[in-house]
Amino acid sequence: MPGDLPRRLSERFHPDLTDTDVRDFTLSAVAREAFLRAGRGTGWKSPMDRNRWFGRRAARVLNDVAGGEMTTVFAHSYSAREVFAHAKTRGWTTVLGQIDPGEEHFRVARLASDEWTEYGAAPEAPPAAYFDSWREECALADRIIVNSPWSREALTRAGIPAEKLRVLRLVYEPEETGPVAAHQYPDAFTPARPLRVLFVGHAAVAKGVPALLEAVEQMTDVPVELHLVGAISMVVPWRFAKHPAIRWVGAVSRSEVMRHYRESDVLVFPSLSDGFGMAQVEAQAWRLPIIASRHCGRVVEDGVNGLLLPEVSAGAIAATLRRVAGTPALLAEFSRHSGVATQSGIEALSAGLLSLESA
Predict the structure, then answer these.
(1) Are strands 143-146 and 72-76 parallel, antiparallel or unpaired?
(2) Whether the model pTM is above 0.70
(3) pLDDT, tens digit, 9 for 90 and up, residues 175-196
(4) Fewer CB near the terminus (10 Å): N or C of the chain?
(5) Residue 339, CB-side half-sphere exposure with 13 Å CA sphere
């Protein structure tokens, strides 16, 4: 909502940047975006044009940087080609931050939509030029940072040299500065106090949401209530839109998302393909146990702070939810062992980036 924009932007500001030299193109970017939207551009042309525009502007800014031969330039995927091309003319080291599993993600999304046709067609895949440009970025990059073993595997299958790839987790700073108490669970879940299951993220086929919905549909004998927090990016069959155990919350503010973490019993993250899945770390910050797939960032330590699914299917999710629903003490144990791991801290990222110099 437009009236919500100032608060949403303020939630993204970090006070440590107050005295930092930041060059931005915010005003021109907003004006350009408004122009593009007025033209009702659709498909991949707009994001591709936006990436090229940003890359050219960033490359021009680098002209003013008096970097030496030890300078390292970091840029995110899909808008780094022009930046890296300029950096290479000056003999600088280039590091690509790969935000997703690349081409493999769209292959997985297409196969999932072919399996779950009831939930709509697969999202439009990028044109060949999109990944042609990306491959040029990868070729210009001295190192490529991915955020999960799944992304590393996906890029390797796409032919990206394995020796360039390094796995570094995304940084997360907890919303709370003080200690967070472990979740409290009843002795047994009942219709009056059901197992409160949470999903956070885009409700999409590639996120494994159809399998999650169908798992809940199977659990007629288990007191369970599913809350889906986030935008809906798929067709929702009528039986799930009106299912008595399913609540479609929609997109909400970050503070509201945090409330759902606090009030839920378990997060289910059944993604079929995810560069990382920040919802997992956010949940851990609130000591919320997680049931996750193996196609995302490694946050869950199986049997310690949650459970890993053997596969993303309705049967596997239902079986795992039945297990925790029948043993609330297991969830309590997972919650006690939950928390933001040191690997998610800014110091770990700093050490990982610095280690690239000697790699």
Answers:
(1) unpaired
(2) yes
(3) 666 688 999 999 999 999 999 9
(4) N
(5) 11
